[in-house]
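USER:
Working in pairs, take the chain set out below, taking as long as you need, and write a paragraph about the fold.
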Amino acid sequence: MQIAILTPTFNRAETLSRLYSSLVSQTCHNYVWYVIDDGSSDNTAELIGDLIRINKIKIKYYRKKNGGKHSALNYGAKKVSEELIFIVDSDDWLMPNAVETILKLYNKYKEDEKIAVLCFHRAYPNGKLSGPHYKKKEFTDNHIRYRINHHIKGENAEVVKTKYFKEFPFPEITGEKFLGEGYLWINLAMKYDTVYVDEPICIFDYLEDGLTNNLAKLRYNNPKGVVLNQKICFDKRFALIPRIKAMIRYIAYGKIAKYGTRYLFREAKCKVLFIILYPLGRLYYYMVKV
């Protein structure tokens, strides 16, 4: 039983070494590190080649044409044969017992077909959690019901059963290179539940040129992906406030994507909500327009 630690990377050779060191230091080595190079122009290929030759841990390296993180995850998922996928960004690093902690929990839930995700905390280098503590040390709930409908913020460390991860590949839109990971988590939540564990296993630090710090620009430059992500939030399993926010963003980014009003109305699942919120969506369009 092994974990596929899946790392999409683009010009991050300087941080990959830190992640590699944390992998070498794991208390349990039942994992394979998949590095998906999304067309880097730095020395990523040379670095990973050297690490493979050192042969301290199992590494599989693949290079592809640049298409964005979501396309790298799609590419990597096709290569994975392990039972679990743990997305670990190139600027993250793991606590020494991360793999051991994951596998212990997985043994409890691997036969439960309703469970797709094992969700832990991510923490800053100073030890502070990215989000609030969970309501219990360990419990099962649904991502939509627990996190989205209760407005629980924060970065998580999610481990997904591979067969479920492969069930929802990210759409790859011509001309766009960004699609938020919410697409995966929400689609999984439509069918499956998550086990939440109130424990951090991953450390992260925001970089100036990282995805999170440039989210507004990424959304503006990839509006069709934003529209797609908002559409899946119209389902009645979402509370009213998340649906309202999704509709406003849907309208605004639909305009940025140059979709016509009739098209947006036709594609919107909540027609009444679309009509009521259309003026706010237009206003938000002018607010995010650059």
